[in-house]
Amino acid sequence: MSDNTLLTFAFMDPPFESERTVTFFRLLDAALEKNASVRVFAYEGAVALAFARQQQHGNAVHGRDTGEEDHPLTREWIAALQQKAEQKGLSFEWINCGLCVDERGVNEVIDGCGRGGPPDLWRYASEALNTLTIGTR
Amino acid sequence: MKVLQVIDQAFRTTTEEQDDTILWLTQSMRGAGGDLMVLLSGHGVYYAVARQRQPALAVAGWQQSQPANVPRDIANLVESGVPVYAVQDDLEERGLAHLALQNGVQPVSRRAIADLYEQADQIWQW
């Protein structure tokens, strides 16, 4: 893959519901690893992936407090991908579908994630080598 | 760039969103100048023969006022110049082949899908 490859991803699943979410993030990581810049259009439940108020919690069943449990948060995965892209001199863009954000009330997102709509997906896809869409099942 | 939207899941959150989210996405991108086609496959072929608006949901004292209207959304796509295809084999497997397709929806055999894919620059499988 050339160094200037740009890939677009459209994703629909929310956090903490499906293994597709994990696979999606691993694909983003793999794309960056192969020196591809990445653009993400988060649609429907996926807009909650960047929600800034996600919080870790303890787990009594596991016998661990909040710090020990160190629960994964998708907002931290996004931040890690942003940091990795920056370190490699790649771009990593993330746009949430604004209407999807509004109906879920997840307006507060981490830095580097924006708000947009379908025209942004079209623009992302038009400029990309290819687009991978992962719908909810 | 031309994109083929492949919709093989029907009635996914149509009650809450009051539309099919991929049909909505397609209409919106078409409005932004996108060049798109739609292929209804699998359970998605139900949309090709739908005639009625979705029944309104009632929960306790809450009553839905704007239920999804898939036939209208399909018609809007066709009228806006988006070709809409339905897989004939999938219609037959579901016992829907005897029903008339909505105006403008074109049947396509499973064997011809590859030709349809060749017409697009990107295939978006939802």
Q: How would you describe this protein?
A:
The complex is a heterodimer of chains A (137) and B (126). In chain A, 36% of the residues lie in helices and 20% in strands. Chain A is an alpha/beta fold. Chain A has one domain (6-134): Hypothetical Protein Ychn, Chain: A (3-Layer(aba) Sandwich). A five-stranded parallel β-sheet of chain A has the order 4-3-2-1-5, with helices on both faces. The mean pLDDT of chain A is 95. By secondary structure, chain B is an alpha/beta fold. Chain B has one domain (2-54, 64-125): Hypothetical Protein Ychn, Chain: A (3-Layer(aba) Sandwich), CATH 3.40.1260. Chain B is built from six helices and seven strands; from the N terminus they run βααβαββαβαβαβ. In chain B, α2 packs parallel to α4. Chain B is globular. At the A-B interface, α5 and β5 of A face α2 and β7 of B.
Fraction in beta strands of chain A: 15-25%
Count of folded domains of chain A: 1
Total helical elements of chain A: 5
Q: Tell the overall outline of chain A.
A: globular
CATH homolog superfamily of chain A? DsrEFH-like
Q: What descriptive keywords fit this protein?
A:
heterodimer, A: alpha/beta, Hypothetical Protein Ychn, Chain: A, B: alpha/beta, globular
Compact summary:
The complex is a heterodimer of chains A (137) and B (126). Chain A is of the alpha/beta class and 137 residues long.
Secondary-structure topology with pairs:
The complex is a heterodimer of chains A (137) and B (126).
Chain A: E1 6-11, H1 19-33, E2 37-42, H2 66-69, H3 74-87, E3 92-97, H4 98-104, E4 113-116, H5 118-127, E5 130-134
Parallel strand pairs in A: 1-2, 1-5, 2-3, 3-4
Helix pairs in contact in A: 1-3
Chain B: E1 2-7, H1 14-17, H2 21-31, E2 35-40, H3 46-49, E3 58-59, E4 62-63, H4 70-79, E5 84-87, H5 88-93, E6 105-108, H6 113-118, E7 122-125
Parallel strand pairs in B: 1-2, 1-7, 2-5, 5-6
Antiparallel strand pairs in B: 3-4
Helix pairs in contact in B: 2-4
